[in-house]
Every structure is written in structure tokens, then in C-alpha cells.
């Protein structure tokens, strides 16, 4: 890995026509590679990356090589290269500046579902302008907020509802921040980590340790990524209610206790997945509409609370190792591509 990494470092510093790209090559391992950055063709843009973000849940599964074989094609990121499990160029939280191409976009800060690399060329319709009121680093959260929007379209909370979110990670916290804006809604976030209480409460929700009584709920959303979290969500659901599952468990088995009162209380489990617009909106909203909405919602400065530590792009080997062994930052770690 040493020679390839050194070559890529030098390229990133000295040649704007070449991109430095991070590839995962095995569980917890990766290498920097260089790719030629061709001039944009008509209808394309050339983007210099400012920030990329780590989508901890999905990228941890990718870093471990834990994407189920059945999902290898469905879970491909839009601009992924390689194939699961390895080697693979992966990622989908990229914010950069358009330097060439479609005139109306030159100089604009844009978000794209692009992997971790220093620059890229893509169709102009694949990038979304970031509102001037949204800082570039905060804009990497667009993927998390877009997912939260989709989950709430699926869950359909109403005025005055008591909403329980199980899991205070990046997605759970984004859901909590958005749903609190509905008049009269009471939002509780449950998690096993008491250390997340300050962030949850600063977002305007109530934090409860997962082992404590959670109270009654009208809407239950599971975003913990764990079987224990899903079981807790089922225990907390109202009679004749449902649990909307935002987590993706990868290849991990998810055992559930479906005896006791599961049937007598007529509970339902429903998945929510960002790959398609929620069914209640699918006929009227596109994925591009949904992403544009997420970027507008990021005008709220409270979302800065979801940004974890920033590291230089040179730190991606350590970040990948931590993703694989489970010690990565719980919120959105941002990768700074602004330095050579």
C-alpha cells in the first residue's frame, strides 16, 4: 500500500488533472489510487471536492465486507466503482465546488452522491446546488436528512403525536430534529449510550436511556441498527400500531421474540429505505425533489450538532479501520479535502 499511497498523495498536491481516490481493499483496509480527471463533456461538470462525510451505518458494513451477497447490486452507490465485497470505491456524501462545465453551475457549491475522492466529473443533473445559507461542511449531512425525510414520510406523524425514536445515531437524531417541528409533537429518543443525551436534548428532544421506562408512544421509529433496538421498539409500540424500521442490518441475523403479546396487540413491522421515495409521496415527488428539500432543511444550524470530528483525507486509512472494528465516531465524521 505504501508506494500507491505516496503516489496518490503527491498527485493530490501537484496535479489538478489527476484525482486522489480512496479504495477499500479488504476488511478495515484500503489504499489511495490516482485517476485521470478528464475535462467535462457537454452537460457535465468538473468538481473539486471540499468535504466528504462518513455514513457510519452503511460504510461500516462496507468496510467489514458485510454487504449481503443478495444485496450487492441493490446497494451499489450511484458512482461506485469496483464490486462488493472488495475492492470497492464507495461513498455518497460529497460536497465540492464546480470548476468547469455547465456555465450556470461554475463556482457553485454542490452536493453529490459521489465517493471519497479529491475531484470528479459527473453529469450536471447528478449534482445539487447547496443553498448559500448552508455551510459546505454541514451540507454533507444531506444524505442523513434526506433519509430522515423519507422515514417521516413513511411514518406520517401528526399534530400532537408522541414519537419515540430508538437509536441516537446520525439518522435517529436527524429524524428527531425534523419531527419536533410538527406542532404539539413530543419527541423521545432512546439509546444505550447516556453520553448522547446532551446532543439529543440540544436538538429539542427528550433523551431516555434504553433500559429506563420509555412511556407511551403513537409513532415508533427504529434507527439503532441493532436487534435489541428493534425488540425495544416492538415492546414500546402501541396496540394496533407499527414500528417503522430505518435501520439496515447488512448480513447480520436479527432474531426477534414474536411471542408474548406481539399477536394479541396486532403489531406491525414496516421497513423504510431511502433508495425509493416513500410510497405516500412517490407519485408526486422525485428523489431529486427530496434531496433539494433536505438541503433546504439544513439551513437549521442545529444540525451542526450531528457533525463529528473532521480529519484530513490522509486519515482515511485509520477511519476505515475504525469503521470495520466498530470504534468509529458515532455521528457524521467529515473528511477534509481542502489541503494537499
Overview of this structure, please?
Helix content is 24%, strand content 26%. The chain contains 8 helices and 17 strands. The chain has 340 residues and is of the alpha/beta class. Strands 3, 6, 7, 8, 9, 16 and 17 form a 7-stranded mixed beta sheet that branches. A 6-stranded parallel beta sheet has the order 12-11-10-13-14-15, with helices on both faces. Strands 1-2 form a two-stranded antiparallel ribbon. α5 (197-202) links the parallel β11 (186-191) and β12 (206-209). The protein folds into 2 domains: 2-133 and 303-336, Quinone Oxidoreductase, Chain A, domain 1 (Alpha-Beta Complex), CATH 3.90.180.10; 144-271, Rossmann fold (3-Layer(aba) Sandwich). It is globular.
Q: Based on the coordinates given, report the CATH architecture of the largest domain.
A: Alpha-Beta Complex
What count of structural domains?
Answer: 2
Distance between the termini: 19 Å
Poorly predicted ranges (pLDDT <50, ≥5 residues)? 1-11
**In what range is the share of β-strand residues?**
25-35%
Q: How many helices in DSSP terms?
A: 8
Taking Cα atoms only, what radius of gyration do you get, to the nearest Å?
A: 20 Å
Task: Give the CATH topology of the largest domain.
Answer: Quinone Oxidoreductase, Chain A, domain 1
Shape summary: globular
Helix content: 10-25%
Largest sheet: 7 strands, mixed
Q: What would a concise description of this structure say?
A:
The chain has 340 residues and is of the alpha/beta class. 24% of the residues lie in helices and 26% in strands. Strand 4 (81-82) and strand 5 (88-89) form a beta hairpin.
Amino acid at each position: 500500500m505504501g508506494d500507491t499511497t505516496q503516489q496518490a498523495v503527491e498527485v493530490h498536491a501537484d496535479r489538478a488533472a489527476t484525482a486522489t481516490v480512496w479504495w477499500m481493499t479488504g476488511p478495515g483496509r484500503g489504499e489511495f489510487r490516482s485517476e485521470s480527471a478528464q475535462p467535462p463533456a457537454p452537460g457535465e461538470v468538473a468538481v473539486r471536492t471540499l468535504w466528504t462525510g462518513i455514513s457510519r451505518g452503511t460504510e461500516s458494513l462496507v468496510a467489514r465486507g458485510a454487504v449481503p451477497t443478495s444485496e450487492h447490486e441493490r446497494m451499489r452507490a450511484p458512482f461506485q466503482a469496483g464490486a462488493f465485497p472488495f475492492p470497492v470505491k464507495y461513498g455518497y456524501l460529497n460536497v465540492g465546488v464546480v470548476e468547469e462545465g455547465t456555465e450556470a453551475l461554475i463556482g457553485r457549491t454542490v452536493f453529490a452522491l459521489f465517493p471519497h475522492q479529491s475531484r470528479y466529473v459527473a453529469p450536471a443533473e447528478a449534482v445539487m446546488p447547496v443553498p448559500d445559507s448552508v455551510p459546505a461542511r454541514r451540507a454533507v449531512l444531506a444524505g442523513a436528512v434526506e433519509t430522515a425525510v423519507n422515514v417521516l414520510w413513511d411514518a406520517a406523524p401528526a399534530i400532537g403525536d408522541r414519537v419515540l425514536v430508538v437509536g441516537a445515531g446520525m439518522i435517529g437524531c436527524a429524524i428527531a430534529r425534523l419531527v419536533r417541528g410538527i406542532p404539539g409533537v413530543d419527541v423521545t429518543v432512546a439509546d444505550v449510550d447516556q453520553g448522547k443525551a446532551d446532543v439529543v436534548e440540544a436538538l429539542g428532544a427528550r433523551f431516555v436511556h434504553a433500559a429506563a421506562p420509555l412511556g407511551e408512544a403513537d409513532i415508533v421509529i427504529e434507527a439503532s441498527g441493532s436487534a435489541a433496538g428493534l425488540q425495544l421498539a416492538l415492546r414500546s409500540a402501541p396496540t394496533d400500531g407499527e414500528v417503522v424500521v430505518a435501520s439496515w442490518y447488512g448480513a447480520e441475523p436479527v432474531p426477534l421474540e414474536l411471542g408474548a403479546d406481539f399477536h394479541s396487540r396486532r403489531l406491525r413491522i414496516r421497513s423504510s429505505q431511502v433508495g425509493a421515495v416513500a410510497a405516500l409521496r412517490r407519485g408526486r415527488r422525485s428523489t431529486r425533489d427530496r434531496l433539494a428539500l433536505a438541503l433546504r432543511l439544513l439551513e437549521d444550524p442545529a444540525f451542526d450538532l450531528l457533525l463529528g470530528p473532521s480529519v484530513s483525507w490522509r486519515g482515511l486509512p485509520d477511519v476505515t479501520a475504525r469503521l470495520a472494528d466498530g470504534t468509529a465516531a458515532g455521528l457524521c465524521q467529515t473528511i477534509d479535502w481542502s489541503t494537499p
